[in-house]
Known about the structure:
The structure is a homodimer.
Chain A: H1 3-14, E1 17-22, E2 38-40, H2 47-57, E3 63-67, H3 74-78, E4 85-88, H4 98-103, E5 107-109, H5 116-132, H6 134-142, H7 145-149, E6 162-166, H8 170-180, E7 185-189, H9 205-210, E8 214-217, H10 231-237, E9 242-245, H11 254-262, E10 268-271, E11 290-292, H12 301-319
Parallel strand pairs in A: 1-2, 1-3, 3-4, 4-5, 6-7, 6-8, 8-9, 9-10, 10-11
Helix pairs in contact in A: 5-8
Protein name (chains A, B): Glyoxylate/hydroxypyruvate reductase HPR3
Organism (chains A, B): Melia azedarach (Chinaberry tree)
Amino acid sequence: MSAENQEQRQLLQERPVVLVHRIPAFQLPFAGVRTHFTFFDPLLHSPESTQSFLSRHATAIRALLCVGPAPVTSETLDLLPALEIVVGSSAGLDHVDLQECRRRDILVTNAGAAFSEDVADYAVALLIDVLRSISGGDRFVRSRLWAKNGEYPLGSTLRGKRIGIVGLGSIGSEVAKRLVAFGCSIAYTSRRKKSAVSYPFHANVCDLAADSNVLIVCCSLSKETHHMINKDVMTALGKEGVIINVGRGALVDEKELVQFFMRGEIGGAGLDVFENEPNVPKELFTLDNVVLSPHVSVVTPESFAALEEVVIGNLEAFFSNKPLLSPVQLD
Amino acid sequence: MSAENQEQRQLLQERPVVLVHRIPAFQLPFAGVRTHFTFFDPLLHSPESTQSFLSRHATAIRALLCVGPAPVTSETLDLLPALEIVVGSSAGLDHVDLQECRRRDILVTNAGAAFSEDVADYAVALLIDVLRSISGGDRFVRSRLWAKNGEYPLGSTLRGKRIGIVGLGSIGSEVAKRLVAFGCSIAYTSRRKKSAVSYPFHANVCDLAADSNVLIVCCSLSKETHHMINKDVMTALGKEGVIINVGRGALVDEKELVQFFMRGEIGGAGLDVFENEPNVPKELFTLDNVVLSPHVSVVTPESFAALEEVVIGNLEAFFSNKPLLSPVQLD
């Protein structure tokens, strides 16, 4: 290490620089919060000053804060040879090349459970909305059809429904807790059976679907889970089956889902996420048994406050060599 | 009693006639079910044959089945001098002149708890919808604004919200049970404090509103509760406050509510019921912090099946002199 680099490193240890990595649509949710770090956000600087900053500091930067779904690829990592940690701000980190991080011994953290309750609330509301057609009822009243047409179609009750939870992590567990209070029965699939949990476990999602009225998809997206909800799963779920997706769009084979709707071979869906956001398959726009949502299941001030705590907590833990709050297992 | 009347009475005891009283928009939900009774539904007959039927039987009819909100007034009762019971098919019986029934010693039953869980589910979904703008998000996506405008406004989290339940009967209790699972805190007002319940009790709705983020209105409509949610209550609830109404429209002073929205002095509302259904104040159609619903919180096949059980059960109990399943206290 050159003398200059050593000097930089010392400076950065006193008040470390955290490089912010984001796409323009995502703001740093806690800009202005007083921390022990200097956040450098290239999108708040001119390309020239960013270039100048990075040419001086890139080789010493140890922490990258990844805001929202900004991709962290091996090319990103190549630019930051001293990087030791990627602090993520979302629950799912499918935009981060985790294998590459593991290969380089770079730690990764996610949002932990900061969003879990808000996402679980949202999943439950999407489910009741699909079963009872609340958004559809609101459209019906606003289009002044109530006074004109009278009757609105029957919904379907929640109690007694068999709910299959795909991914019983922090979000899935909160969903289960809520739906028990509505008189639903719960089963789940997950990478492995959870010994602390009494809900029935199914080793694969097809078996779970065959035994469920509703699938609630809240696992993380990876190569293994990509298009996990495929044709076979939809067939097993059956004509009255409902799919709720609050995970990632690509967990569901969206083209196949549209085909199932076109053929009337699925009961309904509540979708907060899509394969190619913000684009939504246009075939879904006219369906009344679908609730469409612009990827906002986490979007509350309370979630952002909880996120701030996790992100700052992870950074503080990292820079003071304490255990991270929400490390991602890179296995 | 004349000999003819006695003969009729005997006939009716073997297979009693139950007179159906409904408005055209409401069907007898269990037409065709095999029972020990003969249902006579005037709307299925010509005026002449109804007239002929009633002229022969009206003086002997002991049971009236009131489907939906068909009014039972003292004039209705005058036509049926032998009437002993009004079997209602709704949870609220504001369309039945209960005082007049009491004066004439006519028993009254309602839907009991047949609808309670579906209504409670619906109330919870309306609440999450208002806080997280699910119907609004669906409108946003369907109008193709997501790809055009990008960001959707922040919602507000459910956990930690102070929920004031107005009327802790069968529906209110189910609402409370559900919202506890979402991390809300519960308080209530009711005609009297319930000794079996640990939620804090407020003797009047204004105090409850002052202490709540959300009011969920699920009490019955009577002279005493008419416009119970008035200007003072809305003021006490405050600018961020939310009102959910799954009871009856006239529990809320609707004109006042519209004024509060026009002045931005209330946070949001989820309304399944209105003062002058199917008419909804047009000022509400353009608001994004309001969810409008065409009085369908009870409308599921499962609720109707449960209702059938309660109605038939009440009739069978009445005709065999057993205790009624869901008597209404006429006090």
